[in-house]
Specification:
- The protein has 342 residues and is α+β, with helices and mostly antiparallel strands.
- It is built from 15 helices and twelve strands.
- Strands 1, 2, 3, 7, 8, 9, 10, 11 and 12 form a nine-stranded antiparallel sheet that branches. Strands 4-6-5 form a three-stranded antiparallel sheet.
- β7 and β8 form a beta hairpin.
- α5 crosses α11, α6 runs parallel beside α8 and α10 packs across α11.
- The chain is globular, with a radius of gyration of 20 Å.
- The mean pLDDT is 96.
């Protein structure tokens, strides 16, 4: 990446130690309404970024539009799992198993791979000797169970459902483009950690898609699907993420109004149901504390927070940097002001 390209970003979060600047986390922000109007920004609001797991709610659109939840008996909990980057806790594994059973499949059909469940890193614990995990513990297993159900519904091949040329993935590409207000032919594609195709979108278009998702029934094109997905996510944020996780905390603090999703490598999106607006951020070095702090600062500057929410989100600002003895040794602070959209 060229130096000139990076210059489009701004320092969003700064760290000081002993009053001296030590670190800067560069990034960009876009705040957009459901019509695609840029309301506010910092850095480059059109920066092309892989959507990573923020894409999951949009990847569910073909299944939702085809009446998949009704056909397979997926309730709100299982629709939340379609959008989840979960911890692999027992509740997540149980919901994934139920989804697979309703589609007449076993976990061996999943093509997401297996990793140690996130809950262990969250709790700073190691798995017990002899513990065995499978694809249901993968943070993307709910999404993949939905992928498989769509394939069963439409009589499509199961072995290669993550291949970019598979009809499922082509349907996803089509619907993501529609939701983001883009031409599918313009998409830059990569392969995500779970082996499914992922798309790079300008931040403003990613925000627009989440503004529409949060708008729910008010969306003329995907209203019923967006309403069901948004309600599922805000009603069951523990399934969307899990114990100790950001999406769980933010959606609870949003009191049902905020549809939020974290993506790997420094991406976060927050949509407001009442406003029909959404915020999309990218932290270029993928630093999670900086991403969380920048997101809280954007919500603050946009006037989305009341006093109680300010207090509840304070830990996510992580304003004080502590050493291993618990002494305050530095500060983490916002370094940007949002500019009005154009």
């Amino acid at each position: 990446m060229s130096h000139n390209a990076l210059m489009k970003h701004l320092p969003l979060i700064e760290l000081t130690r002993g009053g001296t600047l030590e670190c800067q986390h560069l990034g960009s922000v876009a705040v957009v309404n459901s019509k695609g109007r840029l309301l506010a920004h910092a850095g480059d609001p059109y920066w092309l970024t892989f959507s990573r797991s923020t894409l999951k709610a949009l990847q569910a659109l073909p299944f939702m539009e085809a009446g998949g939840p009704a056909q397979f008996g997926f309730g709100a909990r299982q629709m939340a799992m379609l959008c989840a980057s979960h911890n692999g806790e027992d509740m997540h594994v149980a919901e994934t198993q139920a989804m697979l059973e309703k589609a007449g499949l076993t976990y061996k059909a999943l093509r997401c791979g297996c990793h140690v469940p996130y809950i262990f890193a969250q709790l700073e614990q190691a798995p017990s000797p002899g513990q065995v995990f499978d694809e249901r513990h993968n943070n993307c297993s709910g999404k993949h169970a939905g992928f498989l159900a769509y394939c069963v519904q439409h009589g499509l091949g199961l072995d290669d459902y993550v291949a970019p040329e598979h009809p499922l993935q082509q349907a996803i590409r089509r619907d993501v483009a529609r939701a983001a207000g883009m031409d599918a032919n313009d998409f830059k594609m990569g392969i995500d950690g779970c082996s499914a195709p992922n798309y790079a979108l300008p931040l403003a278009n990613l925000a627009r898609a989440y503004a529409r998702l949060a708008s729910g029934a008010r969306d003329a094109e995907f209203g019923e699907s967006f309403s069901a997905l948004g309600e599922a996510m805000t009603s069951h944020p523990d399934l969307v993420s899990g114990t100790g996780r950001n999406d769980l905390a933010f959606m609870r603090i949003g009191r049902g109004d905020w549809v939020t999703k974290i993506g790997a490598d420094g991406v976060q999106v927050v949509g407001s149901k009442s406003r029909g607006e959404a915020v999309a951020l990218k932290i270029m070095d993928a630093n999670k504390p900086a991403l969380y702090a920048a997101t809280v600062e954007v919500l603050d500057q946009m006037g989305w927070l009341d006093d109680a929410q300010q207090a509840e989100l304070a830990p996510w600002r992580a304003a004080e940097i502590l050493n291993v003895r618990g002494a305050v040794v530095g500060q983490r602070r916002a370094a940007f002001r949002l500019q009005a959209g154009t």
